[in-house]
UniProtKB/TrEMBL annotation:
Name the record gives this protein: Dihydrodipicolinate reductase
Organism the protein comes from: Mycolicibacterium phocaicum
InterPro entries: DAP_DH_C (IPR045760), Gfo/Idh/MocA-like_OxRdtase_N (IPR000683), NAD(P)-bd_dom_sf (IPR036291)
A Pfam cross-reference name: DAP_DH_C
GO molecular function terms listed in the Swiss-Prot or TrEMBL record: nucleotide binding
Organism domain of life: Bacteria
Length: 359
């Protein structure tokens, strides 16, 4: 059965998700909405460098046709995105969003969380916050790894992630500003750093059965001022401008940081002393578990994959407000076998025959 999808928000990330879903055999995009006057009225397929689809971009989600799922890729701020999510739920859409604060906001935004949960259940649909981070790398993945130790004492994660493929989202990190401009923008509230630390820490603590005393989120700080010009897909960082920032947060229990997270977001260059990479360390009572990616999980690619791989899982899930950790792992796994054969795509791996029971 083909599932019908509506897209809300067609920035760099929304377009990439649409482009991926247009290649799928199990879903069909039937509608798309965006506030940008430059894309309103255009064909979605043409917009994402594909063949025309007959889906015209409208200016208001209220004008979207009926669908099984709406994917929202608009803003990181849950206070703003909730105004888009609730009407969609009330119209009977299952809803998935890459809004970072939607990943697990029960502690940070309890009233909004309850409203989303109540609305979804009242209309028999599901709402899910997803993405690479939050969603997988700093919450669901380490939570799964803790299955290998009987008691966890501490979780430490360090990420250095390449952001050169993102667009408008980079403004919240202060990329491309001089140090003086960065300081002024931070004081005015324009530079805030990473949304989602509190949600990742809350999700991880909840899964471990921990009650935290507090969650501390630090201020984002410049890490690399570029000595060269760095060209991304949507933004260029010139010499003398900030090319990387660092942001960190901790979950405290008994005065001790039991969850310790830090991310460096940057436009990395081979001449830099630091390169992209990811390190996860789980200090258990019976063993220490360490997972390292020497090149790092590519942030943009991982975010797109985490979202598009979960689309059918959201449609099939129980009604209510769920997190990635609530969904079975097999429903979140790669859906590459559902991609159409197309130029530039590797041939799909054939399905293995069903396993036979033993005995």
């Amino acid at each position: 059965m083909t599932q019908r999808i509506a897209m809300v928000g067609l920035g760099a990330t929304g377009r990439a998700m649409a482009q991926s879903l247009l290649q799928r055999t199990d879903v069909e995009i039937v509608g798309a909405a965006d506030r940008n006057p430059e894309v309103i009225g255009t064909d979605l397929g043409t917009l994402v460098a594909s063949a025309a689809t007959g889906v015209t971009v409208v200016d208001d989600p209220a004008s979207l046709p009926p669908a099984d799922l709406a994917i929202v890729a608009t803003t990181s701020d849950l206070n703003h995105v909730a105004a888009t999510l609730v009407p969609l739920l009330e119209r009977g859409y299952n809803v998935m969003s890459i809004c970072e604060e939607l990943a697990y906001p029960w502690s940070s935004h309890p009233e909004i969380s309850r409203r989303l949960d109540d609305t979804a259940k009242a209309h028999g649909v599901t709402v899910l916050g997803t993405g690479a981070n939050p969603g997988v790398l700093m919450d669901t993945l380490p939570l799964l790894l803790t299955a290998l130790t009987q008691r966890v004492d501490r979780v430490i994660i360090r990420r250095r992630t390449n952001m050169s493929r993102y667009g408008a989202i980079l403004s919240k990190f202060g990329m491309g500003l001089t140090p003086a401009q960065f300081a002024a923008a931070q004081e005015s509230g324009e530079v805030v750093g990473h949304y989602g630390f509190e949600q990742s820490i809350s999700a991880l603590a909840s899964g471990l059965g921990w009650t935290l005393d507090a969650i501390e989120v630090g201020r984002v700080s410049p890490a690399v001022v570029s000595e060269i010009t760095r060209v991304g897909e949507h933004v260029t960082v010139e010499r003398g401008q900030i090319a990387a920032v660092t942001h960190a947060a901790r979950g405290l229990c008994g005065g001790r940081a039991v969850i310790d997270l830090e991310i460096m977001f940057g436009f990395f260059d081979p001449s830099d002393a630091l390169t992209a990479g990811d390190d996860c360390r789980i200090e258990g009572a019976d063993q220490v578990i360490e997972l390292t990616s020497l090149t790092g999980f590519e942030s943009f690619v991982s975010t797109i994959a985490a979202a598009v791989n979960a689309v059918t899982a959201v449609i099939d899930a129980p009604s209510g407000f769920l997190s990635m950790g609530d969904l079975p792992a097999r429903t979140l796994a790669s859906k590459g076998a559902r991609l159409r054969e197309a130029s530039g795509l590797s041939p799909m791996v054939q399905h293995a025959p069903p396993a036979r029971s033993i005995g």
